[in-house]
Amino acid sequence: MLFLNKLFNKLSLFSRLFITSLLLLISFIAVLYFYAVKQVSALNTETRNEITTHIDEVHALYKEDGLEAVLDEYELEDTPKFDHQTFLSRLDEHEITFALLSADGELITGAESLTFQNGWHRKRYRFNDEMIQAIGFGKRFDDGTSLILQTPMNHDIYEVRRQTKQAVLLLIVFALVSFPVIYWVARNYLSAQSSQLAKQVFEVSNDPSNQRLEEYKSNHTFYGLGKSINQMLDEMTKVHKQAQTMTVGIAHDLKTPLSRVANRIQMMQQDLDDKAHMLTHIDKANSELQSIVQTFSNLIRLNEIESGKRKAGFKLLNVSDLVLELSESYAPVFEDAGKQLTISVVDGVRCLGDADLLNQLISNLLENALRYSEEQANVWIRLQSQFDGARLQIGDSGPGINSEIAAFVFERFYRADYSRKQPGNGLGLSIVKAICDLHDATITLLPNQAGAVFDIELPIER
Amino acid sequence: MNVLLVEDCQDTAEFIARGLNQQGDALTHYTHAKEALIPASSMNFDVIIFDRMLPDMDGIDAIKLLRTSNVETPIIVLTAMASTEDRVKGLDAGADDYLVKPFAFSELQARLRALARRSPMKQVDHVLVVGDLSLDRTTQQCTRNGTELDLMPREYKILEYLMLNANQLVTKTMLLEHVWGFNFDPQTSLVQTHVSRLRNKLDKPFDHELIKTVRGCGYVISK
């Protein structure tokens, strides 16, 4: 079935229409034929019933009242036996023809040319250049006599056959005439619809970021196509916007440190004789350049994670141990910053993953909390076991992320502070999101919280 | 230190040569892997530096060849490819360390020293000693000037790594790799915080400072 479907999809409009019309024509003819056969068989049954009743009546008449009565009944007193020509002319006039034979096979009365045949039989005769089809029945009675009856086929059968032939012919002629018309109409309809769609696509192409196809909704033929084009435009707009944000991000992240390096070089020219100052300038310039290298390393890292290659190296990990060790490492860092890190980790959570990446995931989120939370903030990291996985939550007491920008925090180079005064390159959370995706984990920034609270649902191994 | 460098990029080679020269180390330089294979297996180098993308063959294949012909000289791979997969490939081929370009010379130097010092006789030391500080690697006991110091697990690991590379620079990246197992830079004061806590226990109560900061590079432990 699938193969037929594939084959059909490869055909041109002409071939499709042709095959469909042909199949329709064949099925119409089949229906007609079936109807005709039914009619003919009904008529035949009628004739047969007549014959079987009649044969018994003739025999009864012969038994009870003798040959005279039979001859009388059929007005055959003068010619109790008649030859083939008379037999044919009787058939032609739809009179009953018969032959009554004695026990030893002698013709008593009836047509001389009829020979005995037991049961039903059909015969064809030629009379005055016309074919006569007859149906006959032969029966041997208990007294040894036998009787053969023949009658022409019901005339209505010929009528049914003739009409059927005519109808089939008409259908074929109609199909031959109508097919080119249907093809022409279909082709014009399709080309009108597609040029309408093409016109819309052309209009939308002037402003693909903001405009979408509208009229496709009323266009039944290309509804799916219109919808797909809109989806494709959405996806492309998204990618385009990401590329734009990225370009701006990269430009910013390069421009700021590079101009600082340029400034330092100018200062070096001024401080050529002052070694202490020179060393400071070199140090600062160096660290600015490091930040550029770091941005690119992060981009490459992000790309590597998103490629999914690392999935091949996944191992069974004790997430509880990993989270606990890392958070305990970070606790003094928070303490030195005047903040408090509360750690709560359940035992024995295991998952398939990449330890290096999970370390980076937690480390990036803790760094984020360290950098952007309020002074003396309370920061927490919790690992809980849930019915269908594990939940890792990293949150802080404030000030949190504005709900308007919450949707963008995982985008590359997105920075909540447009001035980009804070250190960092807006890739940390993109990397977090990519690591979550790689581990089939979902990450959500919880809404309506005092601070930034990230919830990660991690699939686990039991 | 006698170093063999296989690197086709003239700028990088010059950068390394200049640095090593200033330190008084000897350098032999080749631009093609095939030229370097015979000297690498016949001459006595302390460390070999191999670039990955060489004009005639992949550095990784060259390292495999050296290792199959029983050359045991420590090898450090230089590469522009930062992915973990490449790192693992390099280490699997028999390299001892891996450094991603661009790098600071101090980083390379620290790693070269660490590798060169990894001679078989020093590996079995159970007790590491620097001045009046000693660290027992079997009991994990640390004493300075007769006083026992109570170290947290991370502090112990940092100190052990510093003492294994005593008198040599240990960079922040090296500590991240060996103590935390990180192959990424968390851009944080994680290392500084722990080293500073270690110093509070190790140096503060005593007159003489053992751990010294090399600005912008890392730390050195020496008496």
Automatic annotation (TrEMBL), chain B:
<keyword id="KW-0902">Two-component regulatory system</keyword>
<dbReference type="InterPro" id="IPR001789">
    <property type="entry name" value="Sig_transdc_resp-reg_receiver"/>
</dbReference>
<feature type="domain" description="OmpR/PhoB-type">
    <location>
        <begin position="125"/>
        <end position="223"/>
    </location>
</feature>
<dbReference type="Pfam" id="PF00486">
    <property type="entry name" value="Trans_reg_C"/>
</dbReference>
<dbReference type="InterPro" id="IPR011006">
    <property type="entry name" value="CheY-like_superfamily"/>
</dbReference>
<dbReference type="InterPro" id="IPR001867">
    <property type="entry name" value="OmpR/PhoB-type_DNA-bd"/>
</dbReference>
<dbReference type="Pfam" id="PF00072">
    <property type="entry name" value="Response_reg"/>
</dbReference>
<feature type="domain" description="Response regulatory">
    <location>
        <begin position="2"/>
        <end position="116"/>
    </location>
</feature>
<keyword id="KW-0238">DNA-binding</keyword>
<keyword id="KW-0804">Transcription</keyword>
<protein>
    <submittedName>
        <fullName>XRE family transcriptional regulator</fullName>
    </submittedName>
</protein>
<dbReference type="GO" id="GO:0006355">
    <property type="term" value="P:regulation of DNA-templated transcription"/>
</dbReference>
<keyword id="KW-0805">Transcription regulation</keyword>
<feature type="DNA-binding region" description="OmpR/PhoB-type">
    <location>
        <begin position="125"/>
        <end position="223"/>
    </location>
</feature>
<dbReference type="GO" id="GO:0000976">
    <property type="term" value="F:transcription cis-regulatory region binding"/>
</dbReference>
<dbReference type="InterPro" id="IPR036388">
    <property type="entry name" value="WH-like_DNA-bd_sf"/>
</dbReference>
<feature type="modified residue" description="4-aspartylphosphate">
    <location>
        <position position="51"/>
    </location>
</feature>
<dbReference type="GO" id="GO:0005829">
    <property type="term" value="C:cytosol"/>
</dbReference>
<dbReference type="InterPro" id="IPR039420">
    <property type="entry name" value="WalR-like"/>
</dbReference>
<dbReference type="GO" id="GO:0000156">
    <property type="term" value="F:phosphorelay response regulator activity"/>
</dbReference>
<dbReference type="GO" id="GO:0032993">
    <property type="term" value="C:protein-DNA complex"/>
</dbReference>
<keyword id="KW-0597">Phosphoprotein</keyword>
